[in-house]
Every structure is written in structure tokens, then in C-alpha cells.
Amino acid sequence: MLSETIESAYQSFCRTRFNLPTTTDISNFETKLGLSLPNDYRQFLREFNGGVFSDPDIVVADPNCPEDCLTLLYGLSVVQPSADLARPANIAVFGPVGTREVLPIGYTLMGNLLYVLVAGPERGIIGLKQKSSDNYFHLAKGIEAFFAQLRPGS
Predict the structure, then answer these.
(1) What is the CATH number of the domain that holds 70?
(2) Distance CA 102, CA 116 (A)
(3) In degrees, to the nearest 5, what angle opens at C-alpha 75 toward C-alphas 82 and 34?
(4) Which of 52, 76, 89, 119 could cross-link 21 (Cys pair, CB 3.0–4.6 Å)?
(5) What are 113's strand-pairing partners?
(6) Is 70 exceeded by the pLDDT of residue 97?
(7) How far apart (Å, rounded) are the C-alpha atoms in residues 135 and 57?
(8) What's this model's pTM, rounded to 2 decimal places?
(9) Alpha carbons 58 and 110: distance in angstroms, whole number
(10) Do residues 143 and 57 touch, judged by C-beta distance below 8 A?
(11) Quick one: pLDDT band at residue 87, thresholds 50, 70, 90?
(12) What is the CA radius of gyration of the chain?
């Protein structure tokens, strides 16, 4: 079970929670993509499965990272196609099956892409890709640390 940090953030900032996927849904998704999700992100899907948020600020230490707010985290097997983690348009951004290192997991108020690294030495890091450029910023070492960075919007 993940920490109370995520549950608290959901209680404070989540406007719409998606139905939870089954373990089979998550395994099928990993097989379809030819990858294994980081353990904490897999557990997050199982316990929370993304949702629509009330635009809380994402507070990070990197002064170069643009100020932004969390709007949506994709979920598995959700009714709204644009919010479905498995939607081809959402996952095709970072290369063909079996070669992905970056998995899109949502977006921000400013239209920036949120992602999780699914391979390599920095596996599990949550990051932001700036919409208007090829700038990438590491936000947190895992999904729990990402949620710990959320603050009420200003």
C-alpha cells in the first residue's frame, strides 16, 4: 500500500477519480507495451488509477522548471478516451513497442506532458516535458514523492 501522502493529495485535489483497474488490466497493459512499470507506479494504478485534479501547484526545487499545476493523470480502462493511459495517441509519443523509456502519464494546466521513466538507471522518476520545447525536467523520484510536491493553487 502506498503512503497517506497520495491519499491526502487525492482528498484535497482530486475532482474525479477513475474506477480501479484489475491486476490483469495492468499486466495486459505492460505486455501490450513490452515493458514493466516501476513498482510504485504499478501500485499507484492499482490503488488510485489517475484522475482529474483541481490544478494544485507542482512545487519543485529546480528554478529552471516552469511553474505549473496538475490537471490530469491518465488511468487504465477509463471511460473518457482522452484520459485512458492505454489510448494509442497517449502512448505513441515515445517510440515503438519495446523501445520506450518514457511513458506519458498525464498533463498539466499549461499543457505540459507528465511522464514516468520506465527503463534505465533513473527508472521510476516522474518528469515534465515542456510543451513548447524539447525541455525535460525531473520532478520527483517516484510517484509518492511527486504527490508530496503538490500544494493548493495560488
Answers:
(1) 3.40.1580.10
(2) 6
(3) 95
(4) 76
(5) 107, 129
(6) no
(7) 19
(8) 0.92
(9) 12
(10) no
(11) confident
(12) 14
